[in-house]
Specification:
Layout lengths: L1 H7 L4 H5 L7 H20 L3 H16 L5 H16 L2 H13 L6 H11 L11 H14 L2 H18 L4 H16 L5 H4 L2 H10 L16 H10 L3 H17 L3 H10 L1 H4 L7 H19 L3 H21 L1 H17 L6 H20 L3 H17 L3 H18 L2 H10 L12
Helix pairs in contact: 3-4, 4-5, 5-6, 5-7, 6-7, 7-8, 7-9, 8-9, 9-10, 10-12, 12-14, 13-14, 14-15, 14-17, 15-17, 17-18, 17-19, 18-19, 19-20, 19-21, 20-21, 21-22, 22-23
Length: 425
């Protein structure tokens, strides 16, 4: 990385985009091999991923630009953030990679910039249209692998952004899956299935809403398939979404198990927004278990580790991370609120701030979770009126998101509260 950084230190974007075309055949072939190996090493979490992409840049600077130079610069941008936390440099080289892309390589650059880099600086909602464009470009150029990668990232980010009603996500997922199926590709659909099943579960159309098994997939079977093929990206996707779903439906042990199982994978799948989500649901399930088990010290320690991550992440991107940090902070303070006036005040202020910032950033789903946690906090300290206000608010927000089954769970859990469900159309 240091060698590559020195080589690029004085090179402007204008200089890099005006490099002559690569003409030496053996170097062109080497670039093709490096590109193939780069894809494989990223998906498998290999330590060779950085080295292979640095090599592409070295060859580009020495022999001129090639169709595969674009991904070299894009991957360099990704590594600037992962290793050095240089979000400005990451976005610069990610954008450079996209600007150098030909039509055949364009889908890959969309994934690199909008799937793996931009969300560390900008709201996750800003990635949706570009990722959908990447999907369409992949279909047009015949790059089904990256079309499916774009589709998987798109539906996942749309779901977790909270900016679309769940039933509309299901409808669009079906369209994307049909487009991919036209090319008789089975594996790409696996990246979309976990999100689609989670959406189906939340709309009340599954036997057990906390488990990713139903109409489009079987959680246990798809996990076995990902392990058998050593596809850590697919395993990460399945377990990350399973942890989210289990947490929403109060199965905290299951949520903690799934998030813990992919803790190591997070370090091997740099850039994906699911790293953020894994940390969030790991922290939230840890604090839930700290409240419901006897091992408070163990679970609080695990929860506080995730808070440290969000302290760093929200400096670069407050809109994706500030509300998560505030909610985790509130959960930590709530553990001692009954015995400490100061902790009670911190918890109250942090819950309220989490709800406001999540709503302002478009995360209706997280605002719903924050409202539910605040309601339980007020119930535990005997503030009945504030409990009622927040649980009604949580129900309303889940309803706005379209989470029918979650609304039913809340209504069943608190039969004495009058709820008015108005599900998103």
């Amino acid at each position: 990385l240091i060698k590559t950084k020195k080589l690029l230190w004085t090179r402007t974007d204008e200089y890099l985009t005006s490099l002559p075309e690569m003409t030496e055949k053996r170097i062109i072939k080497a670039m093709e091999v490096l590109e193939i190996l780069g894809q494989v090493t990223y998906l498998s979490g290999s330590d060779y991923f950085p080295i292979l992409n640095f090599k592409k840049i070295w060859l580009t600077l020495k022999y001129g630009q090639n169709v595969n130079s674009a991904m070299g610069f894009g991957a360099y941008g990704l590594l600037l953030y992962v290793i050095l936390k240089d979000v400005k440099g990451a976005c610069r080289f990610g954008q450079l990679g996209l600007s150098l892309s030909s039509k055949t390589i364009m889908p890959r650059s969309y994934v690199m910039l909008y799937g793996l880099i931009i969300h560390w600086r900008d709201n996750i909602g800003t990635t949706l249209d570009p990722l959908l464009n990447g999907f369409k470009e992949g279909l047009r150029s015949g790059d089904i692998h990256y079309a499916s990668f774009s589709a998987g990232l798109y539906v996942g980010y749309r779901f977790h952004s909270g900016q679309a009603a769940i039933h509309t996500i299901i409808q669009q997922q079906k369209v994307l899956m049909q487009e991919l199926t036209k090319d008789a590709q089975e594996d790409p659909l696996d990246m979309i299935r976990p999100i689609q099943q989670a959406a189906i579960n939340l709309t009340g159309l599954s036997q057990d809403p906390a488990v990713l098994t139903g109409e489009v997939m079987d959680e246990e079977l798809l996990l076995k398939s990902s392990l058998a093929s050593a596809n850590i990206t697919l395993e990460y996707t399945i377990r990350g979404i399973a942890a989210c779903l289990a947490y929403i439906f109060d199965d905290y042990n299951r949520a903690a198990m799934h998030s813990q199982n992919i803790q190591d994978i997070a370090e091997k799948s740099p850039g994906m927004y699911s790293i953020n989500l894994q940390a969030f649901y790991d922290g939230m399930s840890s604090y839930a278990l700290a409240k419901t088990t006897t091992d408070i010290k163990k679970w609080r320690k695990r929860g506080r580790k995730t808070i440290k991550k969000f302290v760093r992440w929200m400096k670069d991107c407050p809109s994706n991370n500030a509300h998560k940090f505030l909610l985790l902070k509130a959960e930590d303070a709530s553990l001692f609120a009954a015995k400490s006036k100061k902790k009670k005040e911190i918890a109250e202020q942090s819950y309220n701030a989490a709800i406001v910032t999540a709503t302002d950033s478009g995360f209706v789903n997280i605002a719903a979770i924050a409202s539910e946690r605040a309601a339980e906090f007020y119930m535990n300290i005997g503030e009945v009126e504030l409990f009622s206000r927040h649980i009604v608010q949580s129900h309303k927000l889940y309803s706005q998101w379209g989470a029918v089954s979650k609304c039913e769970c809340i209504a069943k859990k608190y039969p004495g509260i009058a709820f008015n469900a108005q599900y998103a159309q």
